[in-house]
Amino acid sequence: MPGGPMSQKNRQGVLRSRPKGLVADGDIELIETELPELVGGEALVKTTLVGIDAAARTWLDDQPGYLPPVQVGEVVRAATVGEVVATRCDAYEVGDVVTTLGGFSAYSISRDDVYTTVMGRVSAGTAGVDQEALLALFGSTGATAYFGMYDIGRPKAGETVVVSAAAGATGSIAGQLAKAAGARVVGIAGSDEKCAVVTDEFGFDSCINYRTTDLRAALREHCPDRVDVYFDNAGGPILDAVLGRLAMHARVALCGVISSYVSGEHPGPSNYVKLLAMRASMAGFNTLDNWGRFDEANAELRRLFDAGKLTFRSHVFDGLDQAIPALNALFEGTNIGKTFLRP
Amino acid sequence: MPGGPMSQKNRQGVLRSRPKGLVADGDIELIETELPELVGGEALVKTTLVGIDAAARTWLDDQPGYLPPVQVGEVVRAATVGEVVATRCDAYEVGDVVTTLGGFSAYSISRDDVYTTVMGRVSAGTAGVDQEALLALFGSTGATAYFGMYDIGRPKAGETVVVSAAAGATGSIAGQLAKAAGARVVGIAGSDEKCAVVTDEFGFDSCINYRTTDLRAALREHCPDRVDVYFDNAGGPILDAVLGRLAMHARVALCGVISSYVSGEHPGPSNYVKLLAMRASMAGFNTLDNWGRFDEANAELRRLFDAGKLTFRSHVFDGLDQAIPALNALFEGTNIGKTFLRP
Fold it and tell me: What are the UniProt keywords, alphabetically (chains A, B) (predicted)?
């Protein structure tokens, strides 16, 4: 392939030092590397979009998790979507669109024996596939919303559902799934602009700007029948406030603790005692526990998407050199919808 | 009935002022009242045992709960067992042993149209019935352990189960139920004497004295495979410590918050985030939600009791004038097993 990708250089974002709190200049370095020679069973994928999510930030900490921490010197791990530009395996053809964990990298290698379940291959036949949707809806973000809302939240028609980080990638989908189940859905977000998107684009019934209101009073006003389901991306004082407004037999799905990923502190919610008074439950979950059910999740998300009942919004940072601002945007509260990095 | 009970006086413990923290002298006054004339549908029950539990203390606070607060001037509400000494209804015969919410009262009225499900009538035919067992095992105490451990905890053979307040009325049964399910059971209690009872009488595999050890270190030692089920009577720092030791997919049954009934403070457990990391769940429950399943609970408790796999221990205070020390014993940690007041 003269002049083809194999003769090109790769660009990769490599972890140089573990960030404390927000990612600082120098924690991730953009380097140029040689593209590896493909061996049998491999395909070379040109990254079109890197998905930026909170998990990527947690992998930079030296903490055991459901995947091992990224080591200093390694490429920063992240979900990606890309196109096959060279192949030495039967599973992929040139032109195939694939989702994988390509990381902060302009090119990555996909093997034909991994990620076949979760990080699915999308056939080259599906020209014009919405590559943003692959990560925003039909990847782990949508699946997280699906499993958290439907397995743990289990909203019923007429119930009141509250979602924090409602303008975010996961919260926006979780709320729309609750709407699809017939619930009344109240978002919590950090700006009036976000709240407008949450109600106008994502179709929530209302949205509370927690930065400018007394959250407890607002919850009483927005949730006159209390809260049957809470999808928590926030932790901290927001979790505590919603716990104080739980209805009998309420369900709380713990999805994330965005308030403390950076601070590292987890103030305990003293209103956990409401779980007792209200015979309520609070459960954590992890999307990757449900690999075997991703087809189920994607089928339902696809059905709602095709029916016009599910939408998403993208926030794209252009260039791998934007890796640090893109990651930090999640925690600075400046992002709306799904955050992408376009290499 | 000349000389019978109708000509006698009643003695009753009446709420005079709402206690703050422990019950103080004068908060409950022992008074003498006339025995009421029975009307149709009523039976007069001579109290043989008053069950003293944390619920009775919570009913003295002016807080909405699953039963309304006891009002100042009213008899203190409590579960009782007693014998029918006069009857004007078909449901009860003289000599019947009944359990009811007779309260701090030497005599009480049982109507034939209430409590027929939970506070069951025990036929006079069952002479020699163990009246302590009626409250310690086959009433709401045993049912609380049953529903909390089996519905929420769901211990499997070989799993590790931790129970706090393990020497108490509910915890001691909960732990024995987990043992019956084949689990390894570790108690947490507040003295070496209690720990000895927990292992020697109640058959737990081990017991941690949380007052004299570093609880976190002790949990690591006693629960090398982490904690699959935690039955929490404690709240506060004990709950936080056990949450920090949860195993994957652990279940936490919130039964009570004995650490804060008196203080009124509920420090939030910062280790609630372990629910997320461990895909674990934490749920409150209320025994009275399951009135319709009391027969199921009592049948299983009876089966285990008859098989010698379930035992209880009584701590009896003699005389209604001991009402205040009996109530406070629950919170001062001086009681072992089920606490009774014998009028």
Answer: Oxidoreductase
Q: Is A318 exposed, middle or buried (0-12, 13-18, 19+ CB in 10 A)?
A: exposed
Q: What is d(CA A19, CA A25) in angstroms, rounded to the nearest whole number?
A: 9
**Partner-chain contact B281 A284, CB within 8 Å:** yes
**Whether the complex's predicted ipTM surpasses the cut of 0.95:** no
Tokens coding B173: 């049964």
Mean predicted confidence (pLDDT) in B139-151:
94
- Which residue from A269, A219, A220, A226 is spatially nearest to A250, judged by alpha carbons? A226
pLDDT of residue B129: 72
Contacts of A267 in chain B (CB under 8 A): 268, 270
Give CATH superfamily name and number for B140-287: NAD(P)-binding Rossmann-like Domain (3.40.50.720)
User: How many residue pairs bridge chain A and chain B with CB atoms within 8 Å of each other?
Assistant: 92
Residue to mutate among A281, A285, A287, with most B CBs inside 10 A, is: A281
Domain B5-136+313-342 has CATH 3.30.750.24: no
In 3D, which of A81, A116, A106 has the Cα closest to residue A96?
Answer: A81
The domain ranges of chain A are 5-137+313-342, 140-287
**pLDDT greater than 50 at residue B119:** no
Phi, psi of B161 (to 5 degrees): -120, 130
CA angle, residues B143, B54, B59, in degrees to nearest 5:
105
Q: Which two tokens stand for residue B51?
A: 């069950």
What's the CATH number for A5-137+313-342?
Answer: 3.90.180.10
Q: Is B281 in contact with A281 (Cβ distance < 8 A)?
A: yes
Contacts of A148 (CB under 8 A, 6+ apart): A170, A174, A231, A253, A255, A285
Flag whether pLDDT at B5 surpasses 70: no
Neighbours of B298 (CB within 10 A): 19
